[in-house]
Write a structure and sequence with these properties.
alpha/beta, two-stranded antiparallel sheet, 9 helices, globular, binds zinc ion
Length: about 260
């Protein structure tokens, strides 16, 4: 695992600032994409749920303009194109904030893509210095996590541009769509789109980085040291993070992994 991490970090360093998007190998064929956000009935009555839904609406609106897609919120069902939900991702020990799985066939996204977000019942959320809802003790804003994960659900992969919303670590440097993201989404959905739409479509000059990034699917990263004691108290049990402390020490303290994503 250490070797995998080293390979990833070397590849990212070599390509840092590269403005090339990578892709999941599929796109939505219809211009109207439905989405839902489900939780158990008790959670849906919570103020956190209302906050997450409002931020999800904002995230979809943000992607709507550059993709020219129309997003439609629907009651949750297996027929919804993109299903958002909370999941206990054990962020304090794993570093994972979100996890998205998509299925494609012949270059098209299939309904039922699932976006899992760290459950605020496990790691609390609070307003950060910008007044934005963020996971306690981290620099990761909920909107940022939503934008990243929805990016995956629309067909974008992780990329090595540190300012891109699709960079696989959440920091203060990548909270909004940058030029790479706008170019990437436009190449998928814009007029004369040229992005690869087949499952083999991860060509490009940064194949090495793409290979390293894809290993994130299995890789567990963490920055346990960046969590405040208060945040830890709401998350994993004391001491449970020690196993990943070695990995944590290798990462910059202001970085937190956004999401390994399924393929
Ligand atoms: Zn990602």
């Amino acid at each position: 695992m250490g070797t995998q991490l080293d390979a990833l970090r070397q590849a990212l360093a070599a390509e840092s600032g590269d403005s090339t998007s990578s892709f999941e190998g599929g796109k939505w064929a219809d211009g109207v994409v439905s989405w839902s956000f489900s939780a158990d009935p008790e959670s849906e009555a919570s103020s956190s749920y209302a906050q997450f839904v409002a931020l999800a609406q904002q995230a979809f609106q943000t992607w709507a303009a550059p993709s020219e897609l129309t997003f439609q919120q629907v009651p949750d069902s297996p027929q919804a194109d993109i299903r958002l939900t909370w999941s206990q991702l054990n962020t304090t020990s794993t570093g994972v904030l979100g996890y998205t799985t998509v299925e494609t066939a012949d270059g098209q996204m299939l309904p039922g893509a699932v976006v899992r977000l760290e459950d605020p019942a496990q790691l609390g959320v609070t307003a950060d210095a910008n007044g934005q809802l963020a996971y306690s003790g981290t620099q990761a804003e909920v909107l940022q996590v939503l934008l990243h994960e929805i990016g995956h659900a629309l067909g974008l992969g992780d990329n090595p541009d540190v300012n891109s919303i699709m960079y696989p670590f959440a920091s203060a440097s990548n909270r909004t769509l940058d030029a790479t993201d706008l170019k990437g989404i436009a190449s998928l959905y814009g007029a004369g789109s040229t992005a690869p739409s087949s499952a083999s479509g991860t060509q490009g000059s940064d194949g090495k980085v793409l290979a390293a990034l894809s290993s994130l699917n299995e890789l567990i990263l963490s920055n346990v040291a960046a969590f405040s004691p208060a945040a830890s108290a709401t998350g994993a049990a004391p001491g449970s993070a020690t196993a990943t402390a070695g990995l944590a020490a290798q990462l910059a303290p202001d970085q937190l992994q956004l999401s390994p994503h399924g393929t």
